[in-house]
Amino acid sequence: MVASECGLTYEMCNDVIGGFAMDATGFAPKNETDMLRYSYHVAGAVGIMMAKIMGVHDDDGETLDRANDLGLAFQIANISRDVVEDAAAGRVYIPADWLAEAGLTPGEHAKPENRFILAGVMPRMIGLMQKHEDAARLGAKRLRFRSRWAVLSAANIYGAIGRKVLNRGQKAWDTRTRVNAAEKMWHVTTAFFQAVWNRPSGPVEPIIWSRHDFRPVAGW
To answer: What is the sign, positive or negative, of the torsion defined by CA atoms of 16, 21, 26, 29?
Structure first.
């Protein structure tokens, strides 16, 4: 019912299912492109579907692109926070070439003795998260107020998780990085005023990508 009312397509659903397929077959990214493609399938595609539910039309490709950016930013924050948990489950989502440049081996990268070096990879991860978070805010500008407030609240909270991982350095994975209830309330309140002001600056670099650059799953 929701799918027909909001214009969700089989293609959109298949993009999300593609993320499950990647995990089921032991996917591990070789490079940044791989990581972003995975992030598209498990989160960016979900962002696009949510944008459709919020009333974004198919002909508003720019807003759908920015909805994808929101999902990418969320997933990069998740990857950064969950490095040790993922490694314990035999999964690695940080690009292999990034780890190699830092002198780390997938599977060994999350061990306690390697976390100081691992923390050195986080500025690159969180910088990428920030780029897509800032791009997503431009898309939120086009949404109705309640939807814009919700999106900006989520962006603030997930962005805070990523920045906490960065700021905690090698201790980021001693305990799970969280945003507590008081912090969440602060981010939601801040998002209210951001939604009212509605003048996001966007990322520093020009946006030259779109959601189509991160699919299909067959590319990996």
So the answer is: negative
Would you say the pTM of this structure is higher than 0.90?
A: yes
Cα 112 from chain centroid? 25
**pLDDT per residue over 147-203, tens digit each?**
999 999 999 999 999 999 999 999 999 999 999 999 999 999 999 999 999 999 999
d(CA 168, CA 31): 25
Q: What is the pLDDT of residues 100-147, one digit of tens each?
A: 999 999 999 999 999 999 999 999 999 999 999 999 999 999 999 999
The amino acid that residue 97 corresponds to is: D
Which domains does the chain carry?
2-200 (1.10.600.10)
Q: Are 198 and 142 in contact (CB under 8 A)?
A: no
